[in-house]
Automatic annotation (TrEMBL), chain B:
This is Peptidase inhibitor family I36 protein. Residues 1-31 form the signal peptide. Pfam families: Inhibitor_I36. The lineage of its organism: Bacteria, Bacillati, Actinomycetota, Actinomycetes, Kitasatosporales. It comes from Streptodolium elevatio. The keyword Signal applies. Keywords: Signal.
Length: 244, 140
């Protein structure tokens, strides 16, 4: 749903928070290296911003905007893309970063410090579970099965035989070429039209929200404490970044 | 069997006992692949088992669909394709986040799970054995 957040999103790290936490981790690694007499710097954090960045969970998972479907079909608007290689490091630098065993060194020291302070470096598994498990649970819900049947009927009327939106997305024909074929685009356009016509997205958002809410209520104490951990982590990250 | 360097020791935690002698071997020309996860190229290391154990595979690029020739190396799961068979992940990239997608084509439709630079973890129970593609990104 555009502009709407699922209940779990109150507990997921937002992109700007991820940026701050990772910037602090890097700054601490640089400081640790300096304390070992090694001048080390990270390359500038330049790179691809995912087309998913800034989207809510529900925007990413249910909705392909019609204009994106019309241009890219089921392909990612980001294209294939390439991850750049990190420049090679002198052996002494590498050992100071990762230790001789690959499990110690400055990275390990910084992350152990986060651990000791009971801070996060990324979303906790239990929160990821609320986010993803309830997506899966919603797919099995009778209300969603009815919604999928409506969607499937809408697609059938347009000449496409898919039981669910997931089936259509996973059609093996869509991975055979680096860009969308006209057939793929036509299918994706029909797919998104049928999502709108059957209001499947509204149903899905309501069903999944209810499942998440149930989990959140069951884990209220744990999640309240977790909120504090997020706040503490951000406060710590900001204090690290404020230091020269 | 491919040589392992100390860079991949983290990835090879479960294999180090048996392969300790190989850990000091010179790095092979290939920077990623079966049983090779490289810090220098910022690979995403995919493991057959939870807790970053079992056979592993290093993929250093965005992958819109893990192909059938991308297979786990030594250990549990050896020879099996990484697509829809990974249980845990480590992101060796120093700067970029990596997202593992339930779908091909790097689509977060239905589900996806991200790992910060230099972190790893188990794939969520729904993502486990449902990994179809991966992509690196920076937060907005």
């Amino acid at each position: 749903m555009y502009g709407q957040r699922l209940p779990v999103e109150d507990y997921l790290l937002q992109p700007d928070q991820v940026s701050r936490i990772q910037a602090a981790r890097r700054a601490l690694v640089v400081r640790c290296m300096r304390s070992k007499g090694i001048d080390f710097g990270f390359p500038a954090a330049a790179g691809p911003h995912s087309s998913n960045a800034g989207k809510t969970q529900s925007e990413m998972r249910y909705v392909t905007p019609p204009e994106v479907a019309a241009k890219f079909g089921y392909h990612s608007p980001d294209g294939q893309g390439q991850a750049p290689e990190s420049p090679g490091l002198p052996k002494a630098t590498e050992e100071a970063l990762f230790g001789k065993d690959g499990k110690s060194g400055c990275y390990a020291e910084v992350d152990e410090d986060f651990d000791r302070r009971a801070l996060l470096v990324q979303d906790a598994e239990s929160v990821v579970a609320i986010n993803i498990d309830n997506m899966a649970r919603s797919m099995e819900d009778p209300r969603m099965k009815a919604a999928f049947a409506l969607w499937s009927g809408c697609m059938k009327a347009r000449g496409y035989a898919y039981g669910t939106p997931m089936e259509a997305s996973a059609d093996p024909r869509w991975i055979q070429r680096p860009t969308a074929t006209p057939e793929e685009i036509a299918t994706a356009v029909a797919h998104t039209s049928c999502m709108t016509e059957t209001n499947i997205v509204g149903t899905w958002f309501a069903v999944e929200s209810a499942y998440e809410q149930r989990d959140i209520e069951a884990k209220a104490a744990e999640l309240a404490a977790y909120k504090t951990v997020i706040e503490n982590t951000l406060r710590f990250a900001d204090s690290v970044l404020a230091q020269p | 069997m491919r040589a392992l360097t100390f860079r991949s020791a983290l990835a090879a935690a479960s294999a180090t006992a048996a392969l300790g002698a190989l850990l000091v071997a010179a790095p092979p020309a290939q920077a990623a692949g079966p049983s090779f996860c490289d810090e220098a190229t910022g690979d995403t290391c995919l493991y057959y088992n939870s807790g970053r154990t079992g056979g592993f595979y290093g993929a250093s690029q965005n992958v819109v669909n893990y192909t059938s020739d991308m297979k786990f190396g030594i250990g549990n799961g050896k020879g099996l394709p990484v697509k829809n068979n990974a249980a845990s992940v480590y992101n060796f990239h120093r700067i970029w986040n990596v997202t593992i997608y339930y779908n091909s084509n790097k689509s977060c439709a239905y589900a996806c799970q991200s790992f910060a630079p230099k972190t790893g973890g188990n794939l969520n129970s729904q993502m486990k054995n449902n990994n179809a593609s991966q992509g690196y990104w920076l937060p907005a």
